[in-house]
Specification:
Layout lengths: L8 H13 L9 H14 L3 H13 L3 E3 L2 H7 L5 E3 L6
Parallel strand pairs: 1-2
Helix pairs in contact: 2-3
Length: 89
């Protein structure tokens, strides 16, 4: 939001407040997830940003769903990863 010229400081502050008003559970990743993320990033030649979400999905026993075909090709052998276009929803 900081780099969007349509938002000013107060707009961003309101957005942040609304996130906290949702009473969401904030999950702090375990060190193991961060270590796994680093390993995935280097082993799969993907960004740490992408690898972090994959590692977090694994830690939480979730399915990681992506529409990024290039990323999917690099991680499709992981049983908990799915390509959005392959899902019947």
């Amino acid at each position: 939001m900081r780099y969007n010229p349509n938002f000013n400081y107060k707009d961003v502050e309101k957005a942040i407040d609304s996130i906290f008003d949702m009473d969401l559970d904030i999950i702090i990743p375990l060190p193991e997830a961060i270590i796994e993320s680093n390993k995935l990033a280097f082993d799969r030649e993907i960004t740490f940003y992408d690898s972090f979400y994959i590692a977090l999905a694994k830690e939480l026993d979730f399915t990681f769903i992506t529409s990024d075909k290039k990323l999917y090709k690099k991680v499709k052998d992981l049983e908990f990863v799915s390509l959005l276009s392959n899902l019947n929803i």
